[in-house]
């Protein structure tokens, strides 16, 4: 590959990197109506060059001198690109464990799970069980004499269930993703199914909460979604520089016990693993908030240079088709000193939010989330379930309202979409108490 | 290779479909720096239905001699299902092949960059997307079409939430100036924002309708959802006497037009509702056979992007969604909260239609005076929203997949 890099340099490029990617995937789809399997292979190259401080970027199924020339000729811009350059490095790594199951064995396992889902609750009208695994081979080469060869495996299971009683229609979903082998063997599927069954029952019986501002306790899964949406995205350098956090670097925005980081990997089966990003950069911990102080942002090579910070290894892509963007890997809040029961103590009326469907945040810091499992709290005790619950607020105000963090810890995994690119991510933390949060119920 | 594979499949007594996509996309985007992206790729999706009516799907970059055997091996893991069928050959009213010109993209970017004089530009981008879809199968389907579309986007702010505008268009005179004017006008309105007091009707702009309905409607009106009872709508019920919802793939001026759907069935205009009555759920070959109902040719491999994907088998989706209401008002915005941009659309419940969203670009219109609003939350249900739709504006426009006037809705909860 270095001969093509040399060709780029001969044509005047000051920097050249080439990514080659080859993937093989299997996907089982089982619904209440049908079952089929999809399998596929994909491969291709991306060539990125810097010419007169402008990017050129070419994606192709093949590589030869003409693709390099096309990449150089595509350079366009206002001659203002500056990136971080790295020393020479050659490394070959393997991430995670292989999925050691035949397709026939998987098929049998998934049939059993599908049967269990169908019998989870008498009100189930429809379900979708989706298993996916992928082996990914990536090669990265750059004009800095960097050669990073990486092989990884990922395996995931998504379950989506819709139930109906009369005119009440409810749904619930669960996603499991791991690099640690066959997802069905890594996680306790019965525990997951119990969770889904409980959520259906809760949503069918639960009442819509009265809108207002309440103290809330967030479970690790909801803390993870909150961190991902309301802090993580705002700390991705490309978003951060035009968002609310940029001017607050070095300033205190939370209590001393507030510590939020994004790391290349974490000791948990849900961990996303990004030892090298898609720009061949070694991953390191990004201490977004340390002891309540906003410290640093997640960068790719460009934004490291722009911010004058050491590279973090957050330049990620969905595939070889895409240009690397600053993206999260494992964003989490570090545990605190409180017991879980202490978080509930003293709450006269509030809500315990156990699991989120999703949410969205604007760069001005407003966020909105929807919850698929929640309960009312009365006098420090968890009471009846609630349904159709959402909450909203402002990131900075909400961070300043966190008054207790528990000792426990949980992570969950999923996928994140940004600028049309989807990457796997993980998020989590301890239980967290927020003194006041705007809680709203849907109105029918 | 196509002929060879199809002939072999016929000899083996199995059904085979070869879907191929050739993509040429040229994009320039700019945040802090410019990124020119030049993408060229070819991919194939192979659908096989074996002699036991089991379906298997494989995708790849190159077809070879083993393609058929690989797909057959995968099909054995599926369940037999008589509804697994491929479309038969049918006459197609072929639209002219259409391609857009990538050479204009640089000029579009120069024009978009002029916005910097007035607002803080977060992102601008312009794409010329040309692709060719071809579908061949053992039942005689042999269709091929070149399609092209421009995609232009701008995101900006000025002590306001980020406001975006998107343009998906086949028009060679890309209406960039209109996009810029809309963006500047909305930012100007949002520079001074107040809290909403009191209850008002809500008017959704075409942009907000695209966010709220373009993904939700195909799911809520799919034949599977009716069959399973996982939609709040019922066949034959009258939602709103003045309302028409139409899926129109045949208007060649619209960005999602196509002569055939993503499994090669001839495109049809589908009146999902007629005089407000729910009439035609969207189907593809599988669901039309399964439920013994008309095939509306709504097979889609689009996911949420413009270009269909060769990596997935077809499901049900829409093309261009036309929404009309027979009560047309000339001054629809007066004395209403106008909602233009929504936050949290990924939390809309596509089974029951409930939503609770922040309208982060919205304004109060009182006799033409527009006052930006702070943190407006709208909560409701899509069926209820369509029921309470009272009128449409005269200015019918295309935004993304939606073709509609602005729509006025009463009795929606806003706070």
Automatic annotation (TrEMBL), chain B:
Gene Ontology biological process terms from the UniProt entry: proteolysis
Organism of derivation: Saccharolobus islandicus (strain Y.N.15.51 / Yellowstone #2)
Pfam families: PmbA_TldD_3rd
Protein name: Peptidase U62 modulator of DNA gyrase
PANTHER family with a match to the protein in the record: METALLOPROTEASE PMBA (PTHR43421:SF1)
Entry GO CC: cytosol
GO molecular function: metallopeptidase activity
Domain named Metalloprotease TldD/E C-terminal: residues: 198-415
């Amino acid at each position: 590959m270095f001969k093509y890099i040399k060709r780029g340099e001969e044509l005047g490029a000051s920097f050249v990197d080439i990514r080659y990617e080859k993937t093989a995937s299997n996907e089982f789809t089982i619904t209440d109506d049908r079952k089929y399997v999809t399998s596929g292979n994909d491969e291709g190259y991306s060539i990125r060059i810097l010419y007169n401080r402008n990017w050129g970027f070419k994606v192709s199924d093949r590589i030869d001198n003409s693709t390099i020339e096309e990449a150089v000729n595509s350079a366009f811009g206002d001659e203002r690109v500056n990136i971080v350059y790295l020393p020479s490095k050659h490394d070959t790594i393997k991430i995670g464990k292989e999925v050691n199951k035949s397709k026939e064995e998987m098929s049998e396992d998934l049939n059993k799970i599908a049967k269990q889902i169908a019998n989870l609750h008498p009100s189930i009208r429809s379900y979708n069980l989706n298993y996916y695994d992928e082996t990914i081979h990536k090669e990265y080469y750059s004009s800095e004499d960097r050669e990073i060869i990486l092989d990884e495996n990922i395996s995931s299971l998504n379950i989506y269930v819709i139930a109906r009683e009369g005119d009440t229609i409810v749904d619930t979903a669960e996603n499991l993703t791991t690099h640690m082998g066959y997802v069905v063997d890594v996680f306790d599927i019965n525990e997951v199914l119990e969770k889904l069954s409980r959520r259906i029952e809760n949503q069918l019986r639960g009442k819509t909460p009265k809108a207002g501002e309440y103290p809330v306790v967030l479970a690790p899964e909801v803390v993870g979604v909150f961190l991902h949406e309301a802090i993580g995205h705002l700390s991705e350098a490309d978003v951060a520089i035009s968002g609310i956090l940029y001017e607050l670097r070095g300033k205190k925005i939370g209590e001393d016990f507030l510590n939020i980081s994004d790391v290349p990997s974490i000791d948990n089966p849900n961990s996303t693993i990004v030892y090298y990003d898609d720009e061949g950069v070694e991953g390191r911990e990004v201490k977004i908030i340390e002891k309540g102080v906003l410290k640093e942002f997640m960068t790719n090579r460009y934004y490291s240079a722009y911010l004058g910070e050491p590279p973090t290894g957050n330049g990620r892509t969905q595939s070889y088709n895409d240009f690397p963007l600053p993206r999260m890997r494992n964003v989490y809040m570090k545990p605190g000193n409180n017991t879980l029961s202490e978080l509930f103590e003293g709450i006269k009326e509030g809500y315990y939010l156990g699991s989120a469907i999703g949410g969205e945040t604007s760069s001005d810091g407003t966020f909105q989330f929807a919850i698929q499992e929640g309960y009312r709290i009365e006098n420090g005790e968890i009471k009846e379930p609630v349904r159709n619950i959402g909450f909203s607020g402002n990131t900075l105000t909400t961070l300043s309202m966190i008054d207790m963090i528990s000792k426990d810890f949980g992570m969950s995994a999923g996928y994140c979409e940004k600028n049309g690119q989807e990457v796997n991510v993980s998020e989590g933390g301890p239980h967290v108490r927020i003194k006041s949060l705007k809680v709203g119920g849907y109105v029918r | 290779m196509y002929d060879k594979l199809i002939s072999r499949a016929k000899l083996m007594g199995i059904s085979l479909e070869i879907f191929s996509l050739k993509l040429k996309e040229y994009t320039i985007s700019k945040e802090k720096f410019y990124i020119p992206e030049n993408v060229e790729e070819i991919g194939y999706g192979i659908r096989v239905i074996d002699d036991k009516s089991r379906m298997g799907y494989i995708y790849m970059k190159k077809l070879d001699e083993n393609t058929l055997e690989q797909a057959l091996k995968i099909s054995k893991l599926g369940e037999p299902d008589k509804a697994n069928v491929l479309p038969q050959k049918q006459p197609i009213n072929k639209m002219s092949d259409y391609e857009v010109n990538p050479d204009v993209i640089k000029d579009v970017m120069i024009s978009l960059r002029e916005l910097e004089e007035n607002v803080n530009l977060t992102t601008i981008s312009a794409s010329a997307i040309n692709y060719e879809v071809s579908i061949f199968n053992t039942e005689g389907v042999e269709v091929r079409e070149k399609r092209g579309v421009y995609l232009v986007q701008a995101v900006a702010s000025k002590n306001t939430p980020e406001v975006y505008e998107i343009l998906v268009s086949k028009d060679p005179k890309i209406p960039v100036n209109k996009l810029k004017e809309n963006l500047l006008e909305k930012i100007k309105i949002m520079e001074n924002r107040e809290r909403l007091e009191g209850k008002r009707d809500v008017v959704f702009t075409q942009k907000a309708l695209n966010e709220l309905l373009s993904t939700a409607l195909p799911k809520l009106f799919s034949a599977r959802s009716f069959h399973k009872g996982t939609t709040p709508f019922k066949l034959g019920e009258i939602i709103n006497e003045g309302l028409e919802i139409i899926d129109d793939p045949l208007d060649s001026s619209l960005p999602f037009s196509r002569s055939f759907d993503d499994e090669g069935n001839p495109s049809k205009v589908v009146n999902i509702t007629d005089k407000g009555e729910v009439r035609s759920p969207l189907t593809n070959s599988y669901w039309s056979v399964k439920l013994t109902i008309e095939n509306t040719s709504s097979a889609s491999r689009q996911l949420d992007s413009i270009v269909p994907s060769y990596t997935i088998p077809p499901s049900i989706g829409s093309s261009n969604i036309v929404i009309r209401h027979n009560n047309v008002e000339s001054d629809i915005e007066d004395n209403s909260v106008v909602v233009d941009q929504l936050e949290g659309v990924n939390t809309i419940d596509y089974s029951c239609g409930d939503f609770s969203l922040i309208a982060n670009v919205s304004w109060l219109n009182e006799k033409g005076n527009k006052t930006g609003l702070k943190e407006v939350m709208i909560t409701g249900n899509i069926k209820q929203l369509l029921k309470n739709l009272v009128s449409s504006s005269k200015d019918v426009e295309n935004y993304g997949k939606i073709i509609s006037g602005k729509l006025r809705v009463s009795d929606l909860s806003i706070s």
